[in-house]
Amino acid sequence: MTTRKIKKAIIAVAGSGTRLLPATKSMPKEMLPIVDKPIIQLVVEELVEAGIEDIIFVTRWDKKPLEDHFDHSVALEDDLKKNGKNEIAEKIGKIADMANFIYVRQKGPYGNGTPVLSAASLVDDEPFVFVWGDDLVKSEVSFTKQMVEDYEKNGQLMIGVQEVPREVVNRYGIVKLKEGTNEIEDIVEKPSIEEAPTCLADFGRMVLNQDFINILRETSLGKGNELWITDAIKKYIQNGGIFLAKELKDGQWLTTGDPLNYLKAIFAYALDRDDISGEILDFIASQKK
Known about the structure:
Elements: E1 8-12, E2 33-34, E3 37-38, H1 39-49, E4 54-59, H2 64-69, H3 74-82, H4 86-95, E5 100-105, H5 114-118, E6 128-132, E7 135-139, H6 143-154, E8 157-163, E9 173-177, E10 184-189, E11 200-208, H7 210-217, H8 229-238, E12 243-247, E13 251-255, H9 259-270, H10 277-287
């Protein structure tokens, strides 16, 4: 099977981050730091490792700090060099050169499917990756790279999934697989704990294409009067399409949209750092009563 290589990604970054107020009052939630890198830079690095060249941010009016982060800061780089900090100057300069960055404003109904439609003209007739800008996937090999390689082998659309505790299934899209396969049989957005078909939750890593966009355009607003990706996936399957679930193994999906999970993400990345992990563990131990 010959498939087109995936070179583009859409990142949804138009959320308001209300659960992290007041920290997000004047700072996009995607720019909050995970140790010394903003959340969104870690997402971009994952995409770049997967061979993505064009990254389309679907934004809103208050995301300028995010746009500035992925641009050159000539004055800062010059000041660093003048002060002999050439290594950090080079590190800062490389951020703008990681990919081609494109910015579009989100328009349309509320919902996690709207960013795809807002950027649809920029991915016309080609496969692409769709990512939520506040979801991190910590793995030895870029999870997006794993998905892209799978797509190049089988040509099928897919979404990342991971088992979650039964008591939190009502927070996520929940996937039911055809027996003995990774093919999605059904997908339900935020089911009740009693009605959830499994504990397999989807998260913000997807491979989509023009056929999916066409179905998304015809998808009615669903729960909460929102446009849901899960509803479009269900419709895609009902129309005879195959949609796969890519289970995360040997890795960790980390949400960052609320204080507790944001702090968990910081610790997960901090403990990977040889320069600070030991002192972090000592500090945690010293706080125990």
